Amino acid sequence: MSPLRAAGVLVGYALVAVVLTWPLARHATSHVVLANIAAFGDPWIVGWALAFETRALAGLPHGGIFHPTSRALFYGETAFGALPLFAPPYLLTGNPTLAVNTVFLGGLALTAWSLHMVVARWTGSRRAAVLSAWTFLACPFSVWAWGPSAINYVTLWYWPWIMLRAATVSTLAGTLALGALVFAQGLSSAYIAVGVVGPLLVLAVLRLARPATRRAGWRLVGAAAIAVTGWAIAFAPFLLMRLDEPDLGRQTLYPFFSRIAAPSGLFAAGEPSGIAPAALALIAAAGVAALGNRHGRRAAWRSGLVWAIVGLVLALPPRVLVFGHAIASPVGWLADAGVPMHAVRDNGRRGLAALIGLCVLVGVAWAECEDWLARARRPVGWLLAGLLAVGIFYGLLRPTERRPSPVPRPGRYPLFDARTSRGIDSPLLAALREPGGALLELPTAPGPIHHVDAMHRAQHHARPILNGFDGYWPARFPHVMALACRLPDPDALVELRRETGLEVLLVHLVPQPIGTPVGPYACPPLAPGARPSPEVPERPWDPSVWETIARDGRPDLALVARDGTDLLFRVTAQ
Description:
Elements (H helix, E strand, L loop, with lengths): L2 H18 L10 E3 L8 H16 L25 H11 L2 H28 L2 H12 L2 H6 L13 H10 L3 H15 L3 H19 L5 H21 L1 H9 L32 H13 L8 H17 L4 E4 L2 E4 L1 H7 L15 H24 L5 H16 L18 E3 H4 L5 H6 L5 E5 L6 H13 L15 H10 L3 H11 L1 E7 L35 H9 L4 E7 L2 E6 L3
Parallel strand pairs: 5-6
Antiparallel strand pairs: 1-4, 2-3, 6-8, 7-8
Helix pairs in contact: 1-4, 2-3, 2-4, 2-19, 3-4, 4-5, 4-7, 4-15, 5-15, 5-16, 7-8, 7-13, 8-9, 8-10, 9-10, 9-13, 12-15, 13-15, 20-21
């Protein structure tokens, strides 16, 4: 395919992504997809990390969360792989909402395009390529359950090329290229790194078992070694942070609870392998029909099946229900053998290889159908392909466990106005953009939503903030939040100033009404898993004391500006 035609295909899939998620593109500078409660949190957790990384790479001032904690970036997802799409719009406009939506829509388009190109090369069929890409675009995981919020989980555009090269690698240069692709793909997430290297190693073992393919097996081992070496360097700060935090496993709202589920749950809407039932039926039917065929698609079938099957196995919890009995899964065997599978704690996301493998199999399966249609002399290929595409689309309309109703539909994707809700155009944000020290936003409870709001605003002003929410929190964070909970107590303010260098307070008299007191996101902070009790009651938010300080003044707090029910104070305590 010529470069011009390939570019046209990419533009086509970008338009499909825009139509499928409409009206998001029309509001891309101010809104995000309201995928249930996640729109209030997940896009800004990953978005903050990407903004921090972008500013660091560009040599711009930037501040961390959990200030003054070092390595604050490494308490959760870093999403390095999304930087190629996030950084340009963020640097050009300073608008993280636009950058987040660029990653989401661009990731959908680029991954669909990669599937199209690889399947077209494997099958020689344009319709097969289109159906493969469409299966990804119409998968609830991609466009609803995870993609709009955890945007790095649609940055999968290297994966189809990894599958193609892994099936054909035959030279040292090919091995190096494959290793580079695997490394680049794994930068999107630790889950993705596990999901891509697992099937690659299984392919290597299968080839090492046969003398005729042993050399190819060692090339796959070499490519995996290149990727793992690169990840060891890129993710080294995670290990250093872990050494500083010996009790990290308790410093989270997301403990390592593995679900015990039936294997059939892997195909539920919202899971990576939860593609449309029509697509699964096509794979099954065409797979049976292909058993007796002798043609050049065996490599594509084998590759797609290995990636899909290993992905499904990786997505299993350590224990699964089989005929009402809980038995150990292969993931459980690995965990029992000492492999730290618990370090990648969400079962489903380990199985992203199944999503890409199944999408490839849809294309290969359709190519088998085209062979049958050609032999039967029935020129109805486009009609049947269209009917299948409709069936795949209806798979998107299934309700999902992770993101319950409403179910999204093109033209009616629920949106959340982040720009207005977060006061991005407030004059207080203009004041915070001026050079200065650490910021604390109040209230700090109940729940982490207030902290995620602060992280979104931090992407605009780039100051270090004492607030923060991620996969984990630093050991000292509850202590800092306990002091913040006591404000405006003068002694607590002095201690905060001394320990953190606190310079400004942004006080929301009417805070976000969403939240549950939990962990350090309670006032006073609670132990993980605890709830407020009569002995330690939740301290109610009292805006009147801040109104009094704003009106009458106080020596250690100077009102800088006011915007409606938001107050900005400068801390003058010594």
